[in-house]
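Hi P.,

Sorry for the delay on this. The queue was packed all week, but I finally got your sequence through. Input first:
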Amino acid sequence: MSNRSSSARRRQKRILHRIKLVTLLTLLALAVILIPILLFRACSGKAENGSSGASGSSGSASVSGSSGSSSSLPAESSENAESSESSEGSTVESGPESSTPQYGSIARSGSDLSRGDLILVNWENSYMEVPEGLVTIASAKTGDYLVKNNEIQLRDYVIPYLNEMMADFRAATGISNVVILSSYRSVDYQKNLYEQDLARTGRDYSDSVTKPGYSEHHTGLTFDLAYIAADGSWPFYDGHGDYGWINENSWKYGFIIRYPDDKQDVTQIIPEPWHFRYVGQAHAEMIHASGLCLEEYMEMLRQHPVSDPYTFSGESGSWSVYYVPLIGSSVEVPVPQDKPYTVSGSNEGGFIVTVNME
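Then the structure:
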């Protein structure tokens, strides 16, 4: 009986072992089947929750760059999300749009900082490049104004706005004796002007001629005006009288008076009513409405990340503007996938995205 009992116990152990083995194999098989299904459902749920932003066709004209992968509004730190107060009575507002756009991104690097219409060139931000697209103004101008000589150059896409402004000025006043006195200058040419001014004044610095490498004239985005009187003389251009039309209306064509009367302590340059800078029609109107000089305007934009854009509505349209700092050697700049936009380097550490909200 003992041999039979021992044999029975061994059979039971073998049966239990086989049952455990079959059970373990069954559980492993179920895990192989169920885990991928559960992971797929979890990922699908996250994707559905993350696609609630506004969608639409991609922007057309004035779009700079192509959008990458989409995402919802990028998170920003509270330190960078501080908004600036707009001036009383202005049409400027600050704060996010009521609907959240869908964002992609485009890559920008340090070499892109000096490219765009909003580059800041002053006593602490140099510009040493030879700008692209320089053409002689004489080769593309209308008969509504004059140019000092046939060598003076401006960026090609700026000249149509200059032509339109001067045509409207002539239509409004009947005056056609305005002269483009100066525009693009090389660093070497600026060096000669600077040294001549030092020799004239006997000082070791100049507040009327910018140091070579730090002049806006290097950008090809600026020009200086003069005019020829009936007796052939060249009186000082102060933007007053009949010529005041240009200074009062230049913002409508994308130009700002770069060195206003009351901003010398900020610009470090004496007032120059003859010196005009192209920044584009949208930003020229924003600067005009705010009463800020370019340094102050750029400082204000730096307070507006993508999570808290600077918004503006005016004659040029409705706009949303935000600043993206360059940290390191490159950055992915968030850009909307459903609206036209432009991206400009600031020449001082970041990029400005301007979105056409219309």
